[in-house]
Amino acid sequence: MNLVLLGINHNTAPIEVRERLAIPAGRLADATRTLLHQPGIREGLILSTCNRVEIVTLQDDTLNTETTKADLLRFLHEYFAVPPHTIQPHLYEFREREAVRHLFRVASSLDSMVVGEPQILGQVKESYTIAREVGAVSSQLDTLLQRAFTVAKKVRSETQIGSNSVSIASVAVDLARNIFGSLQGKTVLLVGAGKMSELAARHLIQHGAANILVANRTQARAEKIAADFNGTVIPFDEIYTQADRADIVITSTGAPQKLFGRSHGQHFLQRRRNRPMFFIDIAVPRDVDPGMNEVEGCFVYDIDDLQQVAASNLADRSREAAAAETIVSDEVEKYQQRLQSRDAVPAILALQQNAEAIREAELARSAKRLAALTPEQREAVEALTRSLTAKLLHPQLTALRESTRPKSKE
User: Fold this and answer.
1) What is the pLDDT of residues 142-183, one digit of tens each?
2) Structurally, what CATH architecture does the domain formed by 168-310 represent?
3) What does the domain layout of the chain look like in residue ranges?
4) In terms of pLDDT, which residue wins out, 65 or 107?
5) Which residues are catalytic?
6) pTM higher than 0.90 for the full model?
7) Helix-strand-coil percent breakdown of the chain, rounded to 5?
8) What CATH code would you report for 2-162?
9) In this structure, are residues 290 and 281 in contact, taking their beta carbons and an 8 Å threshold?
């Protein structure tokens, strides 16, 4: 089997491209099933977040490199109705060992926009759960993903990469503080009650925001979030008449079309008598038209804008990130050695079975000459031939086992 990982992320593609490939949570199972039906794919998983869309597959050995990449590119083109030339310049591809390394780094938050953020591991686990439910992950990918989770936990426990946790949510709060100076008494509107917007709201409250308004298409979810923050639910179809109550609007809906445009911003500012309004758009696809930034008093930041602020945090974490990278490298090596050991087992069994078949065949040919032997003598002959066979096999079996053992580091 060939392990192939193909994807785009915040480092290779702007949000204008990423949002065209984003998969809402409700469609992830369908997309994974469709992936599994592509030629030569035995197992597969799709990871879709605001910062990346990645496809991890196990494919038939009979397929060559160019064929597998072309098949995956065709899947992206057909499923998302996006021309290949739009996707291809932003794609990265990893195979075998490097695919394992990349997956370990992603799960450990070493490839995140904000290094050390904790959300990505949960997102990988969610994709894994969905892939298992639709039958797209079984033996080999299951083993790999379970190992990725273990590596991520090890990185988190053996380094300080997650200390003073920085996330997209906390970066958004820093931007809001820069605009307003103080967040004391500010009102926050959550449009879409996802995990990221919930985290941002929590950070805003910790820094003085006083009131939380929640609008979500699913009323029960809105009510739950509002209860957690002692906030108020706004019916989703009233966001345009009530959004101007908020100083800070956090959007994360997964809607296919933008919810807020420039005209909405102008209307909100008129009703607010030109008091500034801050939009944190952490949705992919985006919920807020970038044109709203042209309205004086409206400040709009999308996920890529937040990346620029997040980059300043990387220097503080470089030492811990280096320690985490060492852990990942060691774990990749161990995983590859396990694969080699697993691959050696069939060869060892085949040698043993072949030798035993030859031993039994030779005893059968000599059956007439051994017919006069007593039971004790027959047992002695059996023991002697088994011992000779084992000794003759010993050098070959030792060589096979040694080839899969960890190499000592100088």
Assistant:
1) 999 999 999 999 999 998 887 655 667 777 888 888 888 889
2) 3-Layer(aba) Sandwich (3.40)
3) 2-162, 168-310
4) 107
5) 50
6) no
7) 60, 15, 30
8) 3.30.460.30
9) no
